[in-house]
Write a structure and sequence with these properties.
The chain is built from 3 helices and no strands. It is mainly α. It has one domain (6-64).
């Protein structure tokens, strides 16, 4: 598998969230919107974790060295 950098992963998750927001708006319109929000929140947590890793990448590498 080709290496995917943290910035690329963050970009992809941001793209995925935007796409899901659009899809879920239509899919759950008028019914069970909480289900779509549940899944979006999970992806937002992934994004938050990746951003934290990116922000702390140097420190993490230093500590592991």
């Amino acid at each position: 598998m080709q290496r995917v950098s943290l910035p690329q992963q963050i970009e992809e998750v941001e793209r995925e969230i935007a796409m899901r927001e659009d899809v879920y708006k239509r899919k759950y319109a008028g019914r069970d919107a909480s289900r779509g929000e549940f899944h979006l929140n999970r992806m937002r947590a992934v994004l938050q974790s990746l951003r934290w890793l990116a922000d702390n990448e140097l420190l993490i590498k230093q500590r592991l060295a």
